[in-house]
Amino acid sequence: MTTKAGRLTSSDDALQRTLFQEYGPLIGPEHLPKVLCYRSVSAFRQAMNRNTLPVRVFSVEGRKGKFAFSTDVAAWLEQLKSNGA
Asked: Model's pTM, two decimal places?
């Protein structure tokens, strides 16, 4: 979670560190659907086509597929946790 001052709590920091250690600064197309909790790559693609992905994804020149920042994914997961999902 983020405090009112915009600082990360230890829980946020731990999740961000874990994702960064596992995937680096970018989560690539081979892991992104699973990390975002999609049951299949097809479900991920459908959400992408409908613009309903929970985080911003983007292309990287010279690479196939979509990518997301691990910090964005961590923030989304923390938001789910704080909303009781």
From this structure: 0.81
